[in-house]
Amino acid sequence: RCIAAERRALLDFKKGLTVVANHLVSWTSEEEECCNWIGVGCDNSTGHVVKLDLRRMFTTGEIGYSLLELKCLSHLDLSSNNFYKIPDFIGSLSELTYLDLSYNPFTGIIPHQLGNLSRLFYLD
């Protein structure tokens, strides 16, 4: 079962996005089981969100701080969207083993905080 604080964090994250074609239509406050939402994967035994796969959703907006509430997030795929900035806080998602930010029109510097991701084995 989805953890309430993580469900709220995902809804907060969605608020910062502009989503084309209702790709995140399942992400609603009425649907309590966030583990069934499009792009969300949970650990079956704990209910923690461990995977967020939003690739090719042609999403724009800001990668929001609420992702920090997903304490067990190990897989984050935001590839093929329209994000323009890699936020520094991404380096604080300490459980990440997989991070794909490819095919986004990023500008500016790559935050040095990405070097804090000691468990990371895939980065694109």
Automatic annotation (TrEMBL):
Entry-linked InterPro entries: Leu-rich_rpt, LRR_dom_sf, LRR_N_plant-typ, RLP23-like
Gene3D superfamilies: Ribonuclease Inhibitor
Keywords, comma-separated and alphabetical: Glycoprotein, Leucine-rich repeat, Membrane, Receptor, Repeat, Signal, Transmembrane, Transmembrane helix
Annotated PROSITE patterns: LRR
Tree of life domain: Eukaryota
Residue ranges occupied by any Leucine-rich repeat-containing N-terminal plant-type domain in the UniProt entry: 5-43
Protein name (Swiss-Prot/TrEMBL): Leucine-rich repeat-containing N-terminal plant-type domain-containing protein
Species this chain originates from: Gossypium lobatum
Lineage per the UniProt record: Eukaryota, Viridiplantae, Streptophyta, Embryophyta, Tracheophyta
